[in-house]
Amino acid sequence: MKRIGFDNEKYLREQAQAISERVRKFDNKLYLEFGGKLCFDYHAARVLPGYDPNVKLRLLQMLSDKINIVLSIYAGDIESGRLRGDFGITYDAATFKLIDDLRKWDLDILAVVITRFNNQPSAVVFKNKLERRGIKVYFHYPIEGYPVDVDAVVSDKGFGKNDYIETDKPIVVVTGPGPNSGKLSTCLSQLYNEHRRGTNAGYAKFETFPIWSIELKHPVNIAYEAATADIQDFNLVDPFHLGAYKKVAINYNRDVESFPILKLILERIFEGQAHPVLYQSPTDMGVNRAGFGIVQDDVVREASKQELIRRYLRYNTEYALGVEKKPTVDRAMSLMEELGLKVTDRPTVEPAREAARQAETNGKGNEGIYCGAAIQLGDGRIITGKNSQLMHAASSVILNAIKTLANIPDEILLLSPQIIHQISGLKQGALRQESTSLDLQETLIALSIGATTNHTAELAMKKLTELRNCEMHMTHIPTPGDQIGLNKLGINLTSDGQFSSRNLFMV
């Protein structure tokens, strides 16, 4: 049984109170920038065991009678077809998905803002799609000199030229499909236009990491640095907060670096207001209470250390695939070394490697390549599998895992040899594939077919749901069919970054 380190209910109470207190400081109008992931925040769930990946949606439900939701997306990301890494879909598709996900929680959006719009054709098509489904769309335009030329930015030719979004609730949540979507500029533009209309609206930021109320070198904060190693973010003590209040608070470099100019912009917007609420530090701007939801610090520390290793392995695999840079891998490794961690401290790494060695000893690889896999079940048991002429290592370990969970003896087969033979024949014949070994997606389909006549297979198949959020390691990079199957099962996978075939083209 996994230990719990985070209390969602305590966090929700603290967080809702902090937001309510902040909105009262202004003219009952607050623009709240939501950083990080609004839905499916699996990083937070991994480093804060017990954290509900959708707890922010629960928070919005609690405040639903007080909020409008606005989504912002950068026009350049639409035009370039930028991909969101966790889902593998473009940012415009991620916006559609986010709208659908919010609606499933009875949360509807007020509008979508396309930021830095400069007549990009794909952005126009995106706007048309949304408007024809009844969703309001607004344009915000590039501002020359943004953000440093404050005179130009805070003027009718700057924020003043942007479309003004009519809102009717005291809290306006501004979020987006990913980073650099223009959330901050959307908030600031709305502030400018609100103040021109006589409403003394305010701004605040809601971002889970780094957690400002715990120490700088706490593993959960170092895990955040690992998560942003690709953009070389780093945490530091907020010097403005320390100077103003003589208190230590943790923030990250980009917020600290941008604070002086952001403060100037806010002061210019609030100019002429009788009693403006002015922030003295970037930490002041935040309303995050995640640190107060931690109830077992040792559990959180250990989980965060495991996330560091997982991040390093992910970056190393992405480097092998050509999509990540060497400095990112090196940065993740240096953070691991800072906490005295090794790759083999991840419990599934060495068993997976041993499974690969056994496959080689037995000569039961595929194409002369010997792959091993290991998965850690919820009760801590580690199950292994290896590749063969019949199936991939991912297929083997998943079948072994569900047999273990269902208490099915190892010698009992879940898949009929006839079904395996028919699928292999189809792949080799009509589909003209070189490898006949079954990947995980094919294996799961075969299992579901077999379960119609095989009660044992049916019992095992019902155990697949118990693999969600389990940790798994493979000695080789999963093939597309393996990766799709593992993603759908919700398994947290890492690999050693070796290729499972000599072929460059993988299907």
Description:
There is one protein chain. With 507 residues, the protein is α/β, with parallel strands linked by helices. The chain has three domains: 8-208, Roll (dip2346 fold like); 297-343; 347-498, Domain of unknown function (DUF1846), C-terminal subdomain (Cytidine Deaminase, domain 2). It has helices at residues 8-24, 42-47, 55-62, 75-80, 91-104, 121-131, 150-153, 183-196, 219-227, 239-245, 253-269, 282-285, 297-320, 326-338, 349-362, 393-405, 417-428, 440-450, 455-461, 480-489; strands spanning 30-34, 67-74, 83-84, 89-90, 111-115, 137-139, 171-175, 202-206, 235-237, 250-252, 372-376, 382-386, 471-476, 492-498. A hairpin with a 4-residue loop joins strand 3 and strand 4 (89-90). Helix 13 runs antiparallel to helix 14. The radius of gyration is 26 Å and the shape is elongated. The two termini are 37 Å apart. The mean pLDDT is 92.
Using the alpha-carbon principal axes, give the shape: elongated
CATH homologous superfamily placement of the largest domain: dip2346 domain like
The number of distinct helices, counting runs of at least 4 residues, comes to 20
Order of strands in the sheet with the most strands? 6-5-2-7-1-8
Helix-residue proportion: 40-55%
Biggest sheet statistics = 6 strands, parallel
Overall tally of domains: 3
Q: What would you say the CATH architecture of the largest domain is? A: Roll
